[in-house]
Amino acid sequence: MTQPFPQPDPAQPPYPAPHAPQADGSYPGSPQQPYGGAPPFGMAPAGPYPGYPPPPPAGTNGFAIASLVFGVIGGVLFSTIFGIIALSQIRRRGQSGRGLAIGGLVASGCWVLVIGALVTIGIVFGDTGGRRSADADGGTGPVSVTRLHTGDCVGKVPGDNGTTIEDVPVVPCALPHEGEVFAVFDLPAGPWPGQRQVETQAEKRCQDELDKYLKTPDDKLESYSLLPLRESWEDDRGVTCVVTGPTQLTGSLRK
User: Fold this and answer.
1) Measured between alpha carbons, how far is 158 from 165 in angstroms, rounded to an integer?
2) In whole angstroms, what is the distance from residue 36 CA to residue 6 CA?
3) How far apart are the C-alpha atoms of 152 and 172, rounded to whole Å?
4) N or C: which end of the chain has fewer CB within 10 A?
5) Is the pTM of this model over 0.70?
6) Backbone angles phi, psi at 240, to 5 degrees
7) Is residue 169 a contact partner of residue 217, using CB atoms and an 8 Å limit?
8) CB 141 within 8 A of CB 169
9) What is d(CA 79, CA 72) in angstroms, rounded to the nearest whole number?
């Protein structure tokens, strides 16, 4: 017995009817408009790709720290060297610490200024202390001829024996003494003019200064000059004029 093949129902169309187009002219299920208006099943909406994480910080430059430390404690040389190295490395490596390096360099500069000021003060006060007047402190002692002051009284005037005179004994003018410094000046700059010219210039200037210095003129008083040497002419052209008498002097001859 055979099974009859089912016959189609004449009331049901053999194929599904086509869908009507959408308002934008597309059909459901088309690429322009997927079924249901949603992404295909199992697919997530596309989004931006995640970026790379930022690089870790480079840290503080060690030379910058060392520069600041040495700058604070007075290590000027090391602070300067380390500060320069730190600034160079920070620029190339992108490290932090630029302010520390600059602070070390500034501190080093302050130390240089302080040291320079102290040296200058030492030179000035040292020079003033050496060029003392015996009347000021009442003391006695040898004083370099390059550090004599106008008004200093010389206990013993060195003789004119052609030897180099480096210092003379200075005493209070109230005590008996042989001479008194009445002028100190420098001869004009230039090449060595010769011994005779040095003596002539010094004698003329000393005589003019003596007339201004004395309370009253006295023909018994004589002028004695301490002259610069040819060997030290470039650095020392100073002349020291000393007035002497036939006997020891007591008190000052200044006006």
Assistant:
1) 8
2) 35
3) 8
4) N
5) no
6) -115, 120
7) no
8) yes
9) 9
pLDDT in tens, 205-217: 999 999 889 888 8
3-state secondary structure the chain: CCCCCCCCCCCCCCCCCCCCCCCCCCCCCECCECHHHCCCCCCCCCCCCCCCCCCCCCCECHHHHHHHHHHHHCCHHHHHHHHHHHHHHHHHHCCECHHHHHHHHHHHHHHHHHHHHHHHHHHHHHHHHHCCCHHHHCCCEEEEHHHCCCCCEECCCCCCCCCCCCEEEEECCCCCEEEEEEEEEECCCCCCCCHHHHHHHHHHHHHHHHHHHECCCCCCCEEEEECCCCCCCCCCCEEEEEEEEEEEECCCCEC
> What six digits make up the tokens of 190?
């230039």
Tokens 């190339």 -> residue: 92
> Using 50, 70 and 90 to split pLDDT, how confident is the model at 141?
confident
Structural contact between residues 142 and 166, judged by C-beta atoms closer than 8 angstroms = no
Contact predicate 97/90, CB 8 Å: yes
Alpha carbons 41 and 77: distance in angstroms, whole number: 74
Q: Which amino acid is at 32?
A: Q
- pLDDT tens-digit readout, 61-90: 989 899 999 989 988 899 999 999 999 999
In whole angstroms, give the CA distance from residue 219 to residue 213: 14
Q: Which tokens hold the place of 191?
A: 């090449």
The stretch 184-192 carries a mean pLDDT of: 93
Q: Which of 177, 193, 181 is nearest to 225 (CA)?
A: 181
